[in-house]
Amino acid sequence: NIAGKTAEEFTKTWLSMASIKELIDPQQLADLIAFIVSPLGRTISGQALNVDGDLQCLM
Predict the structure, then answer these.
(1) What is the pLDDT of residue 41?
(2) Number of domains in the chain
(3) What is the pLDDT of residues 19-46, one digit of tens each?
(4) Which among 3, 8, 10, 19 has most CB atoms closer than 10 A?
């Protein structure tokens, strides 16, 4: 219970504020991590990646 809301209510509110209007699938996150640790990601360093449906741009 987050601020008196059910999980469904919280999710609906969150999605209404996120620009891509979908929850991140765990496989999407796993694919990102696999890319970063692969040879293809060898030049990526010191980055903070927001995985929040673009919600951070509103804050």
Answers:
(1) 95
(2) 1
(3) 888 888 899 999 999 999 999 999 999 8
(4) 10
Tell the residue number behind the tokens 């990526």, with chain if given. 44
Evaluate whether residue 26 is within a structural domain.
Answer: yes
Number of other residues whose CB lies within 10 A of the CB of residue 54:
13
CB 11 within 8 A of CB 19: no
> Does the pLDDT value for residue 58 go beyond 60?
no
Tell me the residue length of the chain.
59
Q: Is residue 1 part of a domain?
A: no
Give residue 23's domain range. 7-43+52-58
CA distances from 55 to 16, 40, 45, 51 (A): 10, 27, 23, 9
